[in-house]
Amino acid sequence: FGIMGSAKMEYHTERCIGCGACVRACQHHATRVLSLNADNKVDKDTCCCVGCGECVIACPTGAWTRKPTKFYRVTLGGRSGKQYPRMGKIFLNWIT
């Protein structure tokens, strides 16, 4: 089992310019949960986001921000790390 700290990311569509920097960062560094839709806005597959914050770092306009609340997850099985993680079953989420 593992305990991982993570953050919830907030997406502000009005700030997004559709450059795809966050999508590329997620594809390269994290879990590939972001994609650009037909309107050049970002779609996020929320089930698989590990809360690493690569999208926040990559975004030039601040369209992605971290929510101030910190989360911790207890997972069973899976594999952690930013390159090709395999999420285990979430056993418990808690907030500090």
Q: Brief overview, please?
A:
With 96 residues, the chain is mostly beta strands.
The number of helical elements comes to 2
Supply the CATH architecture.
2-Layer Sandwich
SSE-based structural type: mainly beta
User: In CATH's first tier, which class applies?
Assistant: Alpha Beta
Write the CATH fold name.
Alpha-Beta Plaits
Distance between the termini: 20 Å
Annotation, overall tally of beta strands = 5
Largest sheet: 3 strands, antiparallel
Task: Work out the helicity level.
Answer: 10-25%
Question: What pattern of helices and strands is seen along the backbone?
Answer: EHEEHEE
Look at the structure and give the mean pLDDT: 78
Proportion of strand residues: 35-45%
Whole-angstrom Rg: 14 Å
- State the domain count: 1
Identify low-pLDDT runs: none
Could you say which overall geometry the principal axes of the C-alpha atoms support? Answer: globular
The largest beta-sheet arranges its strands as 1-4-5
